[in-house]
Amino acid sequence: MVLLSGQVVSDVSRHPPAPSASQARPKKRARENGPKRAPYVAAACDFCHGRKLKCSGDRPCSRCQKHHVSCSYPVEDMPDRHQPASETTLVSLDVQSDSSTLFATIDDLQWQLKDLKSKLSHTSIPQPAAVPASTNTVPSDVVRNRTRDKQGSTPQSQSRALDVYGDARSFAYSMNTADARLSSIGEPTVSVDTPGDLIKADESENLLSSPLDPQIPVANQGHNAKDLETFSVDTVTQLLDTFQSIFGVLHPLAQMESLKLNASILLRALKRSLWTQPTRPGECGLLEILKITLAISLIAQSGGQTDLARALYKSVEPVASGAAFCTTISYDFRTFLLLLAIYQFENGDLVLGCRTIMFAARTAVEQGLYRREKVVNSIPNQQQRESTIRLLWSLFVLDRQFNFAAGLPQHLNDSDVDLPLPIDAPYLTAMSHYVILGAHAWNTIVNRDTLALGKGPSGQAVTYFRYQLDQWHRDMDHSVRFDTALIESDDAFFVSPDNEASLYIKALLYLRCNQIQILILRPILIYHQAAQNSPELIVEAVDIAKRSIRVLQRMSENVDLYKTRQVILHHFLSSALALLFLAVAYDAENQKVKNPGPVLMTDSSEMQMGLDLIDQHRASSESADRLWSCFAPPRQHLIRLGILQDRHRQSEGMRSSSATATDVSGHQDVSDDLADFDPQFDYGQLDMEPINSLQWLDWGDTVFTESSDSFGMPSWM
After folding, report:
1. Which of 84, 185, 254, 601 is most buried as measured by Cβ atoms within 10 A of its Cβ?
2. Which residue ranges have biased composition labelled Polar residues (predicted)?
């Protein structure tokens, strides 16, 4: 055993035991003995990052160099990996301190600028030292009013109407088309300066030494913010009567009687509240309705924006701005929004007017007020229910008119409304049928694809449209039904009216009847081949436009009737003139390429008459001045081609203040005969290709809205 065990022991000593698994592995190299692994870069290049590969962080990195690709890094890179963290922190602290200093400097400069403005507002502009006695200089208050108008006016009022958004639903596109066609006929040889352009901001220094430009409206001097202190109850009543005669007869409002009965109390509250804290958002009552109503009347009387009208609007602006966050809208609040839309419409800002009407109408739809059963159940009082129905129909009509005039889609469809017609408001009833009739006629007669192929509207659709229009005229209430022959032939119809409100409504409905026909037939002239294939329709459209201009000219002889309603009447004038400009372009193209066809404009008497009417009132009307600038480009081409005479150009100092007053009164003595249009005028040498059906297709493609069968609705203002 011993030997055996000794043998065993000796064997064990000769053969040591096998090492364990942990002892068999090689020892890990000490991390501090070898070179350190390069840390990951803060931001990989786009090539490595997109493939999730390790990037060296160089510029360019090694991988991009190897593959010969462009090496680019993200825009906002992390700090350099070789930059110590302490240096990065110091740089960020320096940037923060510099930013704080910069913001503090900006705040300081803003306070200094505000203080400087307040000092300048109390400083009068000095008059020039030496001014000739025969020169009409601009008073300092006029310069301040012009500067204030530039700062406070909306961008739409500053730019020409042709530059803003517009399509077939507005006259702006037709003017763009006519301008493009006329500009392609011959090259301009002379530069025609059209008065009425907007004054640049850097020309304010020249206003003191230059004569008073009669084309700039100066009627906004009528009222300023201090006039409110001298306002009496009679003045407020007179302004309310002005509103009632212009807009109240069209869209009756139940609050007008309450405003007149409480005029003295509301006037005292108005004087206190105008210079104190403005009205809080969401609050609306008779006081806010009175403020915006007075602002509308002041603009209508003065022909443009006034300081007092602007101050009244600013005092109620928080009410409108807070309307978007109101869960419910009261009857007074909805009336206030309707008046606010009319105020924006008077200032030429149809976009804001459409937006305001949209909110008032949308909230009514959300509350279910356009359903008959909801109105009956929620408003048990008969008188209140009738006034609410009138207001809802006014929103429906104005939504169509404002959106179509601005080239925007409507917010209310025919199927959204299930209300009884306002029988007690004949004009509103007629207009409710009018907008529904116009929508159906536009969608069935005016078709984009048909006109692009050179085909005019079908005779059956046009005949049915005429039948509907005649039936609309027959179904009118007797108090508002107009006599077409009497309005067009009687020269004394507008001179001494016995009932101005009835005459105004009848003339307005007559012009609307003509305008819907103009707007339905006007797109035919946009496509030359379609116009050639429909000679009877375009001749009829030109004749209707001429009749409208002649009626407006006779209407302007009654100065009070026309002057305070220019904003409304200018929509009819612009639609008619736009069609005549397209007709002149059509004749000019046929004349150059020797195409047979009817001559639409045998003379330009009505076109010259319409331009004279605008020029006659633009010295005292911002609306006329805006409209004049819209027609300036195509009018310059007509003067260049010899179709129109430049009878509106005035030399400096030619028109005195008395002459301007004569223009404002509407009795300017025009001694020049109306320029006749000669169809054989000479355009000069020009090579033009024969006109085919697709010559103006590019223009027609952009005129229409994107829809399946039709291209929107016309501007029925």
Report:
1. 601
2. 653-665
